[in-house]
Design goal:
Blueprint lengths: L11 E5 L2 E5 L1 H12 L2 H10 L6
Antiparallel strand pairs: 1-2
């Protein structure tokens, strides 16, 4: 499988509703970094109170 963003061989693949998308190592890391910095993830963490300590 080829990376969705470039011509490299995909190292990772995700599938949803029978649609499969591959990502090479570089683009996988880039997407994970983008998601980690996203407002949506921050809102989800706040909603779930993930940083709560007891």
């Amino acid at each position: 499988m080829q990376c969705h963003y470039c011509d490299r061989e995909a190292a990772y693949a995700a599938e949803k509703d029978h649609i499969k998308v591959g990502l090479c190592e570089r683009h996988f890391r880039k997407r994970v970094e983008e998601l980690a910095e996203s407002e949506e993830l921050a809102a989800l963490k706040e909603k779930l109170d993930i940083n709560r300590t007891k």
